[in-house]
């Protein structure tokens, strides 16, 4: 395979579990209100998995739609971005691949939490550039509400469940849909700002059940999210030889509408360049960007040739960006 092969976005799909949880339902059991949640986050409702539905189920639905959107039944590899794998061990991607009928293909998880999809795209693009695979299914899927303490008003209103996926194929750097460059970063010293302390190898079982749930220092995370996403968008745009003003659509991680607004201000972008679907889905972690891509494409907010930047930020801390000129894809 020629070394100039890059990853081209050839298919797109998303899937949300059917159960809608509106702000009022949360306000009935926690000390919060629809007004507070809307004004502080931009969220009106989110989707939540029913018991028995898992990340693998969400990922399979989104993956199937991305394959159909690309007109493909095969892929050579499955990269699943998630921090809510069905089991602590093994990874969930092999189960997803099998359920999609992709028997025997390379399949593994990437865990960069809410930045996972952008990390997953970089991994998929790397497999293609290295000649390891010609078609890579990259899925972002999280049943993130499984990590949320049902008693914590600081996190319950924010998070939702869902999945989104793209099929990447080997192609030419000049094609619409060609991905890259990438800009990826992390800062492990700040892991405690947003983490689940117990359940892993360091603290397998804690006597305090709250240690098994997500703890978030919201305000500090908020400030890092705005600054890092803006910084990374500038870096990736510069590396591509674009100017910030060339961006037609910014598809950012949907963590909080105010983060997207602040990020737009820091970049000097008009607010309508920032796409948001957070009102309907909340923060779906690794699924957030591909669900937003699919919704934006369905609404006509992404048109072939648009210069699109994807920007992510999440626990770890991790953050990163990539870009493309939007291809002619019909999302499933
Ligand atoms: O996805 C990965 C990254 N995650 C994020 O990027 C999340 C980033 N953080 C945020 O989005 C915001 O910090 C939150 C939405 C989590 C919180 O919004 P905030 O504007 O930063 O609120 P705050 O934590 O500063 O709290 C303001 C007030 C406090 O009351 P006092 O001290 O002013 O009396 C809180 O106790 O709001 C109170 N509060 C609530 N009130 C009603 C906190 N949560 C709630 C709530 N309902 N759910």
UniProtKB/TrEMBL annotation:
Reaction(s) this enzyme catalyzes, per UniProt: malonyl-[ACP] + acetyl-CoA + H(+) = 3-oxobutanoyl-[ACP] + CO2 + CoA
InterPro entries according to UniProt: ACP_syn_III_C, ACP_syn_III_N, FabH, Thiolase-like
GO biological process entries: fatty acid biosynthetic process; secondary metabolite biosynthetic process
Family annotation (CDD domains): KAS_III
Annotated spans, ACP-binding: 254-258
Beta-ketoacyl-[acyl-carrier-protein] synthase III N-terminal domain: residues covered: 108-188
Gene Ontology molecular function terms on file: 3-oxoacyl-[acyl-carrier-protein] synthase activity; beta-ketoacyl-acyl-carrier-protein synthase III activity
Keyword list, A-Z: Acyltransferase, Cytoplasm, Fatty acid biosynthesis, Fatty acid metabolism, Lipid biosynthesis, Lipid metabolism, Multifunctional enzyme, Transferase
Annotated ranges, domain Beta-ketoacyl-[acyl-carrier-protein] synthase III C-terminal: 239-326
Annotated pathway: Lipid metabolism; fatty acid biosynthesis
Domain notes: The last Arg residue of the ACP-binding site is essential for the weak association between ACP/AcpP and FabH.
Assigned protein family: Belongs to the thiolase-like superfamily. FabH family.
Described purpose of this protein according to its UniProt entry: Catalyzes the condensation reaction of fatty acid synthesis by the addition to an acyl acceptor of two carbons from malonyl-ACP. Catalyzes the first condensation reaction which initiates fatty acid synthesis and may therefore play a role in governing the total rate of fatty acid production. Possesses both acetoacetyl-ACP synthase and acetyl transacylase activities. Its substrate specificity determines the biosynthesis of branched-chain and/or straight-chain of fatty acids.
Protein name listed in UniProt: Beta-ketoacyl-[acyl-carrier-protein] synthase III
Source organism of this protein record: Amycolatopsis japonica
Taxonomic placement: Bacteria, Bacillati, Actinomycetota, Actinomycetes, Pseudonocardiales
């Amino acid at each position: 395979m020629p070394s100039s092969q890059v990853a081209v976005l050839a298919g797109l799909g998303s899937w949300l579990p059917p159960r809608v949880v509106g702000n009022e339902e949360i306000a009935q059991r926690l000390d919060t209100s629809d007004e507070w949640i809307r004004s502080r986050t931009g969220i009106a409702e989110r989707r939540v998995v029913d018991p028995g539905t898992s990340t693998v189920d969400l990922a399979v639905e989104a993956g199937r739609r991305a394959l159909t959107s690309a007109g493909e039944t095969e892929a050579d590899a499955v990269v699943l971005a998630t921090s809510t794998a069905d089991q602590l061990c093994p990874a969930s991607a092999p189960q997803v691949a099998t359920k999609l009928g992709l028997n025997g293909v390379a399949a593994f998880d990437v865990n960069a939490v809410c930045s996972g999809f952008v990390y997953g795209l970089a991994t998929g693009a790397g497999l293609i550039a290295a000649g390891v695979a010609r078609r890579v299914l990259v899925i972002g899927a999280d049943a993130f509400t499984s990590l949320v303490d049902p008693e914590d008003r600081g996190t319950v209103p924010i998070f939702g469940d869902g999945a989104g996926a793209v099929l990447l194929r080997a192609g030419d750097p000049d094609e619409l849909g060609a991905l890259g460059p990438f800009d990826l970063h992390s800062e492990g010293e700040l892991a405690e700002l947003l983490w689940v302390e117990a359940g892993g190898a360091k603290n397998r079982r804690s006597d305090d059940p709250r240690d098994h749930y997500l703890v978030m220092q919201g305000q500090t995370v908020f400030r890092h999210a705005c600054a890092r996403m803006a910084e990374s968008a500038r870096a990736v745009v510069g590396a591509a030889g674009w100017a910030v003003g060339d961006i037609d659509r910014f598809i950012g991680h949907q963590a909080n509408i105010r983060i997207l607004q602040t990020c737009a201000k820091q970049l000097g972008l008009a607010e309508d360049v920032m796409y948001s679907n957070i009102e309907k889905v909340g923060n779906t972690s690794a699924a957030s960007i591909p669900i937003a891509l699919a919704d934006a494409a369905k609404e006509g907010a992404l048109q072939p040739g648009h210069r699109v930047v994807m920007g992510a930020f999440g626990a770890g801390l991790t953050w990163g960006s990539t870009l493309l000129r939007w291809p002619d894809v019909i999302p499933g």
